[in-house]
Amino acid sequence: MTTTTLTRPELTAADRCDRCGAAAQVRAVLPSGGELLFCGHHARAHEERLRAMSAELQKGEK
């Protein structure tokens, strides 16, 4: 049996915040496997709730 690990691509300038459309700086990977992209402002605003949901927060390169 072979195990394949999927990795998510780095955030680029084309990635946009799911709340306001600004440049995405943080990817929140949800326990269900889905993901949300946030600008810095919205990542900070929702960080507490995302952590409570056990979401993995991945910061993009600057």
UniProtKB/TrEMBL annotation:
Domain of life, per UniProt, equals: Bacteria
Residue ranges occupied by any DUF7455 domain in the UniProt entry: 11-58
The protein depicted here goes by the name: DUF7455 domain-containing protein
